[in-house]
Amino acid sequence: MSDLSKHESPAVMKHLEFLMSIIERMASNSASCKTWAIMVVTALIALSNILRIPRTVLIMPIISFYLLDAYYLGLEKKFRAMYDDFVAKLGGSNLSLKDLYLIKPNFSISRKMGFFIKGAFSVSTWLIYVVLLVFMLLLKTYVKEDIGDGACIEVLAYCLKY
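Now predict its structure.
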């Protein structure tokens, strides 16, 4: 098999498409985590005066979504590494059928944790959650508790309208 025909093989192209599809799905899940975190925290802040929700309860969804987002970003990085490894093997002569037909992360626990840590400390992950946390803490600290239930209901109704 010539080098060019190996690269243009339908099986090789499909394998790369599968890997790219997985990478896109993980990126989409990561973006959804950010969207849901903003919506849930905003709703909880709006309801916090009515329901008297303490600050610690408001911090819990931020931390939960942050960890989930870091997990998805770590998975995305893991599959990007698999994609890069496959392309490197494709360029060399050590590509086997197992590499072509098996999409399974073959990493140790420490390497999995390394990808999770990279996801957790990525600017695209922690920055949004730090801003959300600071915003929530500032609102809970400087907004008076006695603004009345009517104002909170109006804010909530406005948010739900859109």
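The chain has seven helices and no strands.
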